[in-house]
Design brief:
It is built from eight helices and nine strands. By secondary structure, it is α/β, with parallel strands linked by helices. It has a single domain, classed as Rossmann fold (3-Layer(aba) Sandwich), CATH 3.40.50.300.
């Protein structure tokens, strides 16, 4: 029978921390599904609708907000909207799978407030210089945009102590293994396994 309370794994961190790459490497882990966020920004050249994002109009986004369809949503840099549909929680519950949310810091704190049992993982870049290098390597942003992202990253770094786990992404292989270990270990939490253990205890005559 599917677990009525799927585990929610939040993966977030500053822009340029490498969280998207780490989540992509996590996709081979059995027992997980991955949310697809909605956004009002245009798709970039290498992006396919429905894979990283669902690209929708601002009118459609606001309609979904009014209908309460988002688990979290935010306007980024005062321009485009991003949101995580609640349907992903329903899908995870129905399938009995863990749900991985790759979302920004603002959205992560919204979800953690609503779902305090969610496991929140903060991806930390090794340095500001490393973030700047990654942003420039993308070749997607103007100097002004890079400056805004670096300033926002500085602000978001102060939120690290509101997360359950921290992964420093200095070495990609090591960080990938750390994140995978956190997800696997979360499945062994006492509260999540209470009913199962009590059922086993009954085979010993109870306790």
């Amino acid at each position: 029978m599917p677990d009525p309370s799927p585990r929610i794994i939040i993966v977030s961190g500053p822009s340029g921390s490498g969280k998207s790459t780490l989540v992509e490497r996590l996709r081979g882990l059995p027992g997980t599904i991955f949310s697809v966020s909605c956004t009002t920004r245009p798709a970039r050249a290498a992006e396919s609708p429905g894979k990283c994002y669902d690209f929708i109009t601002e009118a459609e986004f606001q309609r979904r907000v009014a209908q309460g369809e988002f688990l979290e949503y935010a306007r980024v840099f005062g321009k485009h909207w991003y949101g995580t549909p609640r349907k992903w929680v329903d899908d995870a519950r129905r399938q009995g799978l863990d749900l991985v949310l790759e979302i920004d810091v603002q959205g992560a704190l919204q979800v953690k407030k609503q779902l305090p049992d969610a496991v929140a993982v903060f991806i930390v870049p090794p340095s500001r210089q490393d973030v700047e290098q990654r942003l420039r390597a993308r070749g997607q942003d103007s100097e002004e945009a890079i400056g805004r992202r670096l300033e926002r990253a500085r602000q978001e770094m102060s939120c690290w102590n509101q997360y359950d786990f921290v992964v420093v992404n200095g070495d990609l292989d090591r960080a990938s293994e750390d994140l995978r270990s956190i997800v696997v270990a979360s499945r062994c939490r006492r509260d999540d396994n209470e009913q199962r253990v009590r059922t086993i205890l009954n085979t010993f005559g109870g306790s």
